[in-house]
Amino acid sequence: MQLSLLKGFANVTKFELKDGMKPTDIVFKDFFSEHTRRTRKTLLILASVLVLLSIEGLSLKRFVWFEVDDFEHTRPIILGATTLGLVYFYLSFLIYSWHDFRQWRSTAQIYQAIQAYGYLLQIHATLQVLNKSIAEIAAAKLPLSNDIDQKIKYFVGSGSKFYEDRLSKAGDDLARVFTEQRNLKFGQWIKLSTVDLGFPVLVGAFAIEKNSHLLAPFLRLVIG
Known about the structure:
Layout: H1 2-13, H2 23-27, H3 34-53, E1 62-63, E2 66-67, H4 71-139, H5 146-180, H6 186-196, H7 198-211, H8 215-223
Antiparallel strand pairs: 1-2
Helix pairs in contact: 1-4, 3-4, 3-7, 4-5, 4-7, 4-8
Keywords: Membrane, Transmembrane, Transmembrane helix
Transmembrane segments: 43-65, 77-96
């Protein structure tokens, strides 16, 4: 039952579930969506172009797809337009990243619920067997039959310890799942804080800061 629930969860969330896969492999497999990664790539390209064009004394004859006759004269217009596009992709990346982060947290919580349900089924099955045996003992009439007598001795002895250990293990497994989902591995933190988020945000912010003074003149030129 637990495996089928996990596979159903994997199908809904587009995760590839393999035997022996750890919870962190599922929850942290793909932090960002494809759309967010494309936005991040565009953000980095525009930011790099803006930083390059901000260098004093740089002259160009061709800018991306069109000829530039007088770069120094058209420089503020080009930088203003590119900065406006960069601001759009910068804000989009932040919003999409936040959305993916929320979805990532929800995925972890859904996975926890599925795991919890599986362990609760194990506990329920164990308690059912135990309850059935206890009911048989309680329903027995004196003199006790040899079979009932053996069951009493079994539960008083090793039988009770077996069910106690089984319930304890299920509870420990459930607690482990909840603890594991709250932790990112060290390598995942490094990748998330540098490659996935830190570098794009810093480069984008740096490029916007260097050219933000050109936004207002460009907008006045377009609107006016």
